[in-house]
Every structure is written in structure tokens, then in C-alpha cells.
Design brief:
Elements lengths: L1 E2 L3 E14 L5 E11 L11 E10 L3 E14 L7 H9 L9 E14 L2 E15 L7 H14 L4 H7 L3
Antiparallel strand pairs: 1-2, 2-5, 3-4, 3-6, 4-5, 6-7
Length: 165
């Protein structure tokens, strides 16, 4: 994890599956993915990006791919803590039941078939998945983060609102 007092980036790995119903192998190059959340900068700024330089998808198989993803959060883009509150609540924080996280995404890639290279049209979709975070260890970490946030001049009322207090 890297960052500053108001922004940080974490590295994740998404396990995705790709089905190739064709009899021939497809080689994907420069698989570039971008994820957005409506709760982060109104969905106008990516919350996550990833790039996979090369992957082979054998014919008539489902291939499972570990996809590297960088998730970035910047308080300057979310001054009302909308995304943090959404994440905290969706992941069971404050005693609320866990809910699925919703993400819109787009994927760009090039496909190589034998000697032919072609840009694939941008694929856009959305998905929902269970929160991957375990909030049982969050109170200590959250206290540290909130202490840092208070240290950069945030009002106590705003910080209490973040954790439902």
C-alpha cells in the first residue's frame, strides 16, 4: 500500500473467468480494465485500474485469470466520505448486514488470432460482489485513519459521521 495523508493505493488480485466457446485459442494482449463506483466522485473518476499484458485463452475452455488491480482512494475526490461510508456499510460496519458492492467497469484489449491482431471493441458492464474486507480488525486501523484525518483539519462532526457516530 502506498499513499499520502489524503490518498492511498492498494494492490488487489481479481480472480476472473473467461469462457472461450470457439475451437481455437485466443491470445489477448494489453487487457486494460477500469472500474468506477457511483459513490466515488459520482462515478466520473476510476476507483481501480489494471493491466494484464498477455493472456492465452485455450479453445473450448473456461480460463481462470488472476487480474492485477490497483485501487486508489483520494479524499480530495470524496470530501463527504460517500465512498468510505458506502464501503463501511456494505461490508457490515456499524452492525449493518453485509451487502454487495456494485461496480461499473470497462475493458479494452487486443486479440491475436494466428497472425492477425485486432482491437476488441470496449466492453462495458457492471457487477456486484460480496465485500472482500474483514471489518473485525477495522476498529484499530479506523481509529488511526480517523486520527490522521482529524489531523489534516477535518471537522469532528464529519469524522463522527463517517463511522455513524
Amino acid at each position: 500500500m502506498s499513499g499520502s495523508l489524503t490518498a492511498f493505493t492498494t494492490k488487489w488480485v481479481l480472480n476472473i473467468s473467461v469462457e472461450n466457446p470457439n475451437w481455437f485459442e485466443i491470445n489477448l494482449q494489453d487487457v486494460n480494465g477500469t472500474g468506477y463506483s457511483k459513490q466515488y466522485a459520482n462515478g466520473t473518476v476510476p476507483i481501480g485500474t489494471g493491466l494484464l499484458p498477455n493472456v492465452n485463452i485455450p479453445g473450448r475452455t473456461t480460463t481462470y485469470i488472476p487480474y492485477p488491480l490497483s485501487v486508489t482512494y483520494d479524499l480530495a475526490r470524496d470530501p463527504s466520505f460517500s465512498f468510505i461510508r458506502y464501503l463501511y456499510g456494505s461490508c457490515g460496519g456499524g452492525g449493518s448486514p453485509k451487502q454487495k458492492l456494485e461496480v461499473e467497469y470497462q475493458v479494452d484489449a487486443k486479440a491475436k488470432l494466428i497472425l492477425w491482431m485486432k482491437d476488441i471493441p470496449t466492453y462495458r458492464s457492471s457487477t456486484a460482489f460480496e465485500c472482500p474486507l474483514d471489518l473485525s480488525s477495522l476498529p484499530g486501523a479506523l481509529g488511526s485513519v480517523l486520527g490522521l484525518l482529524k489531523g489534516v483539519g477535518l471537522k469532528r462532526r464529519a469524522v463522527r459521521g463517517l463511522v455513524g457516530g
